[in-house]
Amino acid sequence: MIEINNVEKRFGSAEVLKRINLKVEPGEVVTILGSSGSGKSTLIRCINGLEALSGGAIRVDGHDVSTSAGLAAARRRSATVFQLFNLYPHMTVLRNVTLAPIQVLGQPRAEAEAQARALIDLVGLTEHADAYPQRLSGGQRQRVGICRALAMQPRYLLLDEVTSALDPEMTGEVLAILARLAAEGTTMVFVTHEIEFARRISDRIVFLEAGELIVDMPTEAFFSEEGGLAVPRIRKFLSKMTKD
After folding, report:
1. CATH code that applies to domain 1-61+186-244
2. Is 60 exceeded by the pLDDT of residue 244?
């Protein structure tokens, strides 16, 4: 379980997260929605320890990410896919995917490569295993990013606007992979602007506004007139997003 308790994050005098409380159970897909600057990506970066908390606590399977030992344990249980790929350009696809399992998990190279090739095949990139990132399209690079995260055998997959830099066709490629993972029971915390996709795969929707969590609802309730749409700010947000 990911437990977020009264989490605060400040950058100088700016309050980016304000006493956020959230729990993610194993097997859930929880989507975080909100306008730009609402704190969505910052929350993901706090979960994986890329940002230090200003207050509160985050625990991943009981491990406190504010301590060195707790963060190391949490990172063995979670993996993050970023919006800008972050692949090593001087390494092949196969090497990008095997690097962390070998160096962090201590997997034997042969085992790591066999696992990596299976993941690369899963996302339809078998023929590109020995290619370098610059030879791939944006959608293909993002699929490699997903492989790299899954190679760590995480219990929790954190996804931060993974389609924001992609064109519609490439976005469809990546979302198809994520839909498959969700159907297989992968636990995800998913920051996105892909409203219809979120509606299709999410168990719950969380809505942030100016650093505050204002709604945490089952997906069906969030999109209902009696639930999320009864909140004027959410109705306005959804109306704008669906028009765009």
Report:
1. 3.40.50.300
2. no
